[in-house]
Each structure stands twice: as C-alpha cells, then as structure tokens.
Design brief:
The protein is α+β, with helices and mostly antiparallel strands and 215 residues long. The protein has 3 domains: 44 residues, Ribosomal protein S4/S9, N-terminal domain (Ribosomal Protein S4 Delta 41, Chain A, domain 1, Orthogonal Bundle); 55 residues, Ribosomal protein S4/S9, N-terminal domain (Ribosomal Protein S4 Delta 41, Chain A, domain 1, Orthogonal Bundle); 87 residues, RNA-binding S4 domain (Structural Genomics Hypothetical 15.5 Kd Protein In mrcA-pckA Intergenic Region, Chain A). Helices cover 40% and strands 8% of the residues. A hairpin with a 2-residue loop joins strand 1 and strand 2. The longest helix is centred in the N-terminal third of the chain and has 16 residues. The protein starts with 6 loop residues before the first helix and ends with a helix.
Length: 215
C-alpha cells in the first residue's frame, strides 16, 4: 500500500471501509468530517451500494478486514505481511499477537500518548526526529516499543510551537490506555506494560485476517 497524500483520499478510505477510522485526528470529531457528511462508499455508484442485495463472500470479508487493519495503522502490505509472519511464529493466538505488534509501533504509541492528533501525524513527527526512545533520537516509525521503554519529546523540539501548545492541551485529551503513562510536565511517556488484546479497542476481527493469510 503506497502512502496516501492529500485531504480527499484519506476521507475516502473511511467511506470505503464504512467506518470512521479517525485518520485525520481532531477533524474527524467535527461536522467537517467527510464520513459524517457522506457516509457511503466513494465513487459514482457509492451511494447505491447499500441497496445491493446478496451476501459477501468469505474472501471479501477477510480482505476487507485486512485492509481495514492496514489502513488504521498506516502499514504497507509488505510490512503488514511481515508482522503476520512474526505473529505466526510467536506463542499465543496469531491474530491477537498481530494486533499487539501493530499497537506497539513507535508511531502508534506516540499517537496513543496524545502527542499527535493521528497516526499519520505521529509518523511524520517521528520521521522528523522529534522524539527520543530511551534517551536516543528515534526516526523510524515502525520501531517496536517494549514494556519499560520511555518516549520523550526531543529537548530541542520542546521549543517548537506545536509542542508548546500541545503541553496545554494534553490535560484535555481522553484518558490514556492503562498500558501507558504520561508525564505532561516532562512531555515523557512510558510503556508500563505490553498491550493485551483487551486493551486494543478497535472494531477489528483479527481471526478474519488470519484466515485471509492462511488460505
């Protein structure tokens, strides 16, 4: 999956999946959200798809679930398949392990800490070197964060206008997941424990993804 740029295509992803994926951060919570205004599939015949009859095939359901997970986390197909291979070789349920690997990505942890409005923005901030992982500057969004690791805004970046204003807004953000903690004064977060499947409140059926790659 190539990186998607521009304001329009991102909104069409949510409409295609029939679900608000919050790909544009705070804009998704406003009346400007395209999914709220046009909650049907994109394309010339998108508005008529809800009237079509017939049952979707198993393959179609599995494919859509896989695509949905990829788009939520912003992961290309090749990388997503690699995560699946790792999960398949690990102990425990393959689907749950896959989601835990995705949830532990550095860009996702930055987003979950409230240090970015969306995973896309978190990915950009990481790539531009605005965060340190365990005291060292990290510029790879896919880096795996482990229990006990700390993520902090880089010292030089604390002077950036974005992070100056963010410090004031962090107290108004929704509660953190129980597997993370955040020191708003120091702009430093910690992964208290590895996320479990119960911690990942996303509308995903990971078993369908396992079935797709197990065909």
């Amino acid at each position: 999956m190539a990186r998607i740029t521009g304001p329009g295509p991102v909104c069409r992803i949510c409409r295609r999946e029939g679900l608000k994926l919050f790909l544009k951060g705070s804009r998704c919570l406003t009346p400007k959200c395209a999914f709220e205004r046009r909650g049907f599939a994109p394309g010339a015949h998108g508005s008529s798809t809800q009237f079509r009859r017939g049952r979707s095939s198993d393959y179609s359901l599995q494919l859509r679930e896989k695509q949905k997970a990829k788009r939520i986390y912003g992961v290309p197909e090749r990388q997503f398949r690699r995560y699946f291979s790792i999960a398949q070789r690990s102990r425990g349920l393959t689907g749950a392990t896959l989601l835990m690997l995705l949830e532990s990505r550095l860009d996702n942890v930055v987003y979950r800490l409230g240090l970015a409005d969306s995973r896309k923005q978190a990915r950009q901030l990481v790539m531009h070197g605005h965060f340190d992982l365990n005291g060292h500057r990290a510029t790879i969004p896919s880096m795996q964060v482990r229990a006990g690791d700390t993520i902090a805004v880089h010292e030089a970046s604390l002077k950036h206008p974005y992070f100056k204003s963010l410090r004031e807004l962090l107290g108004e953000r929704p509660g953190l997941p129980r597997w993370l903690s955040l020191d708003t004064d120091q702009m430093r977060g910690t992964m208290v424990q590895a996320p479990t499947r119960e911690d990942i409140e996303l509308p995903l059926n990971e078993q369908l993804i396992v079935e797709f790659y197990s065909r």
